[in-house]
Amino acid sequence: MAKSATKAIGILTAGGDCPGLNAAIRGIGKAALGTYGMQVIGIANGFYGLINNQTRILSDQDFSGILTQGGTILGSSREKPFAKKESEDISGDKPAMIVETYKRLHLDCIVCLGGNGTQTTAHKLSEMGLNVIGLPKTIDNDLVETDVTFGFHSAVAIATEAIDRLHTTAHSHNRIMVVEVMGHKAGWLALYSGVAGGGDVILIPEIAYDPEVIAQHLVDRARKGKQFSIVVVAEGATSVTEAALKEKQKKKKEKGKSKKTEVSGLSSGYRVAGEIQELAGMDTRVTVLGYLQRGGIPVPYDRLIATRFGTEAVRLLADGKYNRMVVYKNSEVTNVPIEKVAGRTKRVPEDHTLIECARLVGTCFGDKMP
Ligand code: F6P
To answer: Can you list the domains of the chain with their CATH numbers?
Structure first.
């Protein structure tokens, strides 16, 4: 067995699941157990399992045959150990329970596979003296310091395939097809799948849209004989009016004055479809892809990057280097201090090359006529 500064690790998967999680678990497990002889303990259901000691020793058998399996063999949750309950501050118990589990299992490090929330929690645990290593996981691709997260390209493939299918039915019925994709507060998934799927309109949270501009673009297309259009809407996309209202609410909240008022109970796709129907009078239908984007088997790219992230994490463990997140930067797999990631979100820059590219082929982002 190769020399290792780390003897025992815990692995947990937290936050929204995605294809690639099991590929990452396999990469970590096979390298840690098979190459370095580390003890590998599986922690069930994210931080919930760490709080409640839902753990078991994993064997080589557990890592067999899971490379192509969707979901996570460990289970996941959105448990936030440091979140304060409105009525009382019991968060103190949960972190203490985590430290107790960590010590009882004689862990040297916890490997946390997750998105923003997970890495923020992992960083807080490191501030309590626990050793952590983060792997960037999410279909949203909204983690800073890394060019890509595993799960993202599988979701892009699912959304793009859906857009391809919507093209044929939109064409048959001369309709406007609105497809709502996930992505939380960032527009990466909508941008990538919108360009790959040939969306005529792509709406992302980073560019507030004007419904009039969208309507005008669709009418212009129809006048040129394009009787159907595809409108790709990120779940976090907002109109200029909604963006202004949210900004006002944010300022009021900062002054402790605001009562949260929902701009609209409808999801972004239905809001946009209603605006198109009203302003352009065109026959419009909505498809919300939802959790389809989190299901199924990982595309080859995600299998590769997840495995690579996993083995990079084990290299750090063997060297005794902790409290870092593995990243993919400038075509290299490397790592950064986890505190550089905690509490931050990577949003699409308005001058991103893919936005420029899309505008050049006539795609409308709702802010101005192409
Ligand atoms: O973070 C991944 C994600 O799928 C987001 O795109 C989406 O907004 C969110 O999770 C849904 O959260 P939940 O799985 O808790 O419903």
So the answer is: 8-150+298-329 (3.40.50.450), 154-295+349-360 (3.40.50.460)
Which residue ranges have their beta carbon within 6 Å of ligand 1?
A: 16, 78, 115, 138-140, 182-184, 235, 294
Is there a catalytic annotation at residue 140? yes
Ligand 1, atom 15, lies closest to the CA of 16
Q: What average pLDDT score do residues 249-263 get?
A: 71
Q: Which two tokens stand for residue 215?
A: 């309507």
Largest CA distance in the chain: 70
Task: Give the pLDDT band of residue 277 (cuts 50, 70, 90).
Answer: very high
Residue pointed to by tokens 């996930």: 182
The answer to whether the CB of 216 falls within 8 A of the CB of 369 is: yes
H/E element, 325:
strand 324-329
The rounded Å distance from CA 313 to ligand 1 centre is 25
Q: What whole-number distance in Å separates Cα of residue 370 and Cα of residue 364?
A: 6
CA distance 189 to 304: 19
pTM higher than 0.85, yes or no? yes
